[in-house]
Amino acid sequence: MKNDEFEQRLQRQPFRAVPEEWRSEILQSAHLARCLLPSTFDSRPLNWWRAWLWPNPRAWAGLAAAWAAILVLIIANRAPEPASTASLPAPSNQILLVLTEQRRMLAKLIESPTQTPAAEPNPAAPKPRSQRRLEFVTA
Amino acid sequence: MSVAEDLERLYDAHAQALFAFVLGLTRDESETREVLQDVFLKLARQSELLAGAREERAFLLHLAHNASIDRVRRRETREPSYKRLACEMTSLFAPALDPDEQALRDALSEALAELPAEQRAVVHLKLWEGLTFEAIAEALGIPLFTAASRYRYALDKLRKRLRPLYEEIK
Known about the structure:
The structure holds 2 protein chains of 2 kinds.
Chain A: H1 3-11, H2 21-35, H3 44-53, H4 57-78, H5 93-111, H6 129-138
Chain B: H1 3-26, H2 29-45, H3 56-78, H4 82-87, H5 99-114, H6 117-127, H7 133-140, H8 144-169
């Protein structure tokens, strides 16, 4: 009995077929087990994104950085500028002369104020009641 | 492809091979069904399991082997007579029209049942799955030389056991 021949003879013996009804039973229970998994998180979308991004991660990172820089520039340009006179046109000589004149007049007014004496109290004016009583007592 | 579709594809492609392998190990049809269900439940719960496998069939056989060993050990602990009953089970093989062929299949089935489970697994994977010793070693988690020597011992036993019948019907 040659070894190869014997082995080949054994190899030719077909096994019993798997019972047909097992297919639906086993797959159904597997499906049920899948549905009853504690976490319903499906990693497929994540995997899809990963598969999509993975070929050139550096290129995608560079693109993202460029977009970030553009956003920063846009935001910086939108920020309100502080009110400044630098952009206003320079005043004309005439206006400057008027302003100088006004300043000079104002200084003169401050330096020599009008000396108005304090008004004398009117003797006919009624005095406080306490003073009147004192006059009445002393009289 | 969704997980459900993937499981259907795996079942259609490998269930017959897994059935034959597991039936050879457990020698019990209901145990075999349980083992197959264990394998597919595991695949359903951990769909990423097959992602790292080089050979889909070899990996599934590995899962089935582990599940079978667990079940057989538990069963043998519960029922010490299980080993004897397993040897008496009906044929592993499809019925044959030719009586000589049928006789050979019955004798082969009995001879396989008499082998230790670890030798049976190697013989099955070598003869009926056509795996290399390297693949068998990987599937069963044993050294390469162990796989080869188990096969040699098992084949010698089968030859001795089947020689009279084989010579008669050759």
